[in-house]
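ugh ok fine here u go
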Amino acid sequence: MSIIRDTPLPQAGKAVGIQTIGMTMRFGGFTALDNVSVDIPAGTFHALLGENGAGKSTLVKCIMGFYHQTSGSLSVDGREIAVGSPKDAAAYGLGMVYQHFTLVPSLTGAENLVISRAQVPAVINWAKERKDLAAFMQRMPFKIPLDRPVSELAAGEKQKLEIVKQLYLGRSFLVLDEPTSVLTPAEADEMLGLVRGMTERGELTVLMISHKFHEVTKFADAVSILRRGKLVGSGKVGELSTSEMASMMIGDVKLAELDTRVPVSSTAKSVLKVERVKAPDRSGLKMIEIDKLTVRSGEIVGIAGISGNGQKELTEILAGQRPTDAGTVEVNGGAYGATRQETRRNHVRFIPEEPLQNACAPKMTVSENLAFRTFDLKADGKDAIWLSKGKMRKRAGDLIADFKVKTASSASPIAALSGGNVQRAVLARELTGEVDLLIVSNPCFGLDFSAVAEIRARIMRARNAGAAVLLLSEDLDELLEMSDRIMVISEGKLVYETPALAADIAVIGSHMAGHH
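structure:
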């Protein structure tokens, strides 16, 4: 779509304001964004909050021209414009800083800035460019060494350089997508403070997607909150408490299903014990420190947390995929290192997130995938020498029927199944036979209602049969519906614990956001 050309392009160094009016985005029958109107005046710092899948990214992609909205409009400084591509957005001074870095690591800061321009001369006059860059950096609140390769910069410096790049390209409205997820608290505060200063001087307007309430309350002027594609609340930051923001984000959760549950026996034995465990996180910059985590027989312990706070590392430690620097993991009272023998002896089962990638061999058949736990065992439990294809097929047929796995045949590659059916097949393999400990991560992510209900019922059945269940989920509704106890993980530590029946959503929400 062409841009309305009579709108003047933004002046460098002068903030622009934007408005979305009735912004709606449908993908087939799914409405990702439903009639969202947000006003972000020039020179303000606006925060956009919402759980995963609430529509934040969709709204931003419509503003930036990555998506073309189904209906609704966008205005810049009070004039309606049509943004058909990110290039169009750039022409109006709209820029975006992503959660993950987009700089070329082997080039210096100066080189990254110069090559980011739309027009770069074939032969670059570096003497002139360095002089121009020095003059430009004089006007910037950020101090960054531009002569060093980006790979040598700290995460905070890289994030500042990403912002400087957008300002260098003349952007005067910036979307910051979880800009502090890779920064230390001190780096985050410094960077957001500098950005806030630019908004106060009228040089910049900011829309920040964030999960961290303390950043929102400290740096933002106003907030808009999305839930399931709809705008459910907005207002000045000083007029909304973090608990009000949390309950708008999460909504009213029905707890009726919990009331029918048999309470955990006070004499239930501890199956999983994690004590004083330390391990480096995925970035290698921070530590995961699990001081004490116990799951008893016949109990579901839910771990709540915003994505990227150490959940993945915790599951990797328990799966034997991440070495620890200190501490102990015990299952059924003995040291546990997640070897195949220990897993088998202690009846430990795993349902990781994205099961097709993490719990299956995608090109192998459904029958073969269902046999992974048992193919090398004879009926008496001793090691088998020969594979019995006939037995594997018969067992697969029984499991497919029992767990309602929809597949053309047990000989189909498992990758040919839908997401819900892959999940059912993995459940069939992991929940058949004796289960003492079940570790489950985001089991219902992206599945339809019927698959979700069935999968939750299967996990609950394992719990009622005496399994100890550790359930890691980013879906708070799921944790409240399923768990006996809920613990919150934030920045690699377990920071809060509550019985699920007495859970206060606002308190859980603020701990999830690091507000503890």
